Prior knowledge:
Elements: H1 4-16, H2 26-43, H3 49-82
Helix pairs in contact: 1-2
Amino acid sequence: MINPKKIEELAKQLSDNLPSGVKQFAGEFEERSKQILQNQLMKLDVVSREEFEVQQHVLLKTREKLEALQAQVNELEKSLLSN
């Protein structure tokens, strides 16, 4: 789902950008920010790109079937009205 390496990179970037007076706490800050990021991201209702693409494909196929069925219904209605 969410790449842990990206979370670590983001936590490291945050820690690297701390003011010099706070650098002594950088390791602790980096670890804590990584935990917070992971916790908050886990609360999000997200799917992987692969899952998204699968669902997108399913939706496309469903739409095509719906359009075909609608065309059949239209033809049946025409044939009923012409009789």
